[in-house]
Amino acid sequence: MKSNQLILLLMTVLLLLDPSGLLAQWKASAFGGISIPNLTAGGSENNPLNTGYSSRLGADFGLSGSYRLSPLFSLEARLEYAAEGGKKSGVQALTTPDAVAQYYTSQGMTPPPYLYADYKSTAKLNYLIIPILADLGWDLRRHSPWRFYVDAGPYFGILLSAKQVTSGSSPLYADAGKTQEIPGGPQSFDATSDIKDQLHKANFGIAGDIGISYAFGLSHSLFVQAGGNYGLLNIQKGTENGRNHVGAAIANLGYAYRFGKTD
After folding, report:
1. Looking at residue 260, what is its pLDDT?
2. CA distances in angstroms from 225 to 145, 212, 220, listed in the order given
3. CA torsion sign, 102 to 107 to 112 to 114?
4. Beta strand 220-231 with 169-170: parallel, antiparallel or unpaired?
5. CA angle at residue 157 from 156 to 160, to 5 degrees?
C-alpha cells in the first residue's frame, strides 16, 4: 500500500468521526522519539532460535488527528513509523549450515538441528502502524495550561522492512557451553540478510500512552508521552525459526494544533 493511500485512509477515518465536515473540535499532531523494542517468544514452537532476545533502540515518529467528543474524551487516529525487533549478543544458536551437516553425515553421524557461536545478531523490523485510540484527558486544575491524558486502543501494522544484521567471528560449537568445537576454525558472521519474505506482511495489536501537554496561545500545545505497543500475532510464516511477537516501549515529544475553540 502506497503512502498516499495510507494518508487517505487516515483522513477517511477522521472524517467518519465528523460527517458534517466541521473542524470545530479537530486537533492535528506531529511527534517523534525513541522506540525500545524487543521480541518475545510466543506459542508452543519455542526453540533456541526465537528465544534469548533483548531490547534494541530505534526510531518512532508519526502524525495524528483527534476529534474531541467532550472536555474529557476524544478519539484519535495515527499514522506511525515504529521500529521493532530485538538483539542478541554472545553465545547463541544458529541453524546448522549445509557444509557442517555434510561433515556430520560423512562421519556417519546425524547432524544436529542447531549449532552455537559467540557473535552479535540484531533483528531490525520496521512497521507502519495505524492505531485507533480512545483518549481520556483532564486539566490539572481549572484553566490550567497543563493537561494529563491516557489513551489506548488497537492498531493495524504493515511490515515495511526486515533485516537480520550479524557481526563478529567465532568457532562453531555443538553445545551452548562451548565444550565441543566443530573443526574448521573461526567463522565470520559479518552479514546483513533480508528476512522480510520469512515474516507476515501485516500485524494486529494494542497500543497505549500516558502523557502531559502544555497549551500556549489559543490553539498550540507541546506534549511528552510514554507508552508502548504489542503485536498479538506471531510474525513468522513458518515454525522452523520458532514464533515471536513484536512489542516496544516508546517515548515521544510532540506538537499539536487545535483548529477549534477550547472550553
Report:
1. 64
2. 16, 6, 17
3. negative
4. unpaired
5. 160
* Rounded distance between C-alpha atoms, residue 178 and residue 115, angstroms: 10
Extract the C-alpha cell encoding 240: 522452523
Q: By C-alpha distance, which of 127, 130, 189 is closest to 162?
A: 127
| Rounded Cα distance, 210 and 148, in Å | 8
d(CA 20, CA 201): 35
Please report, for the chain, the start and end positions of each structural domain, with discontinuous segments joined by +.
3-16+24-92+123-166+193-258
For residue 224, what is its C-alpha cell? 511528552
Average predicted confidence (pLDDT) for the chain:
89
DSSP 3-45: HHHHHHHHHHHHHHT-TT---TTEEEEEEEEEEEEEEEE-SS-
d(CA 97, CA 84): 27
Domain covering 3-16+24-92+123-166+193-258 assigned CATH 3.40.50.10320 in the classification? no
pLDDT at 42: 74
**Segment 43-56 mean pLDDT:** 85
| pLDDT at position 184 | 85
Residue type, 61: F
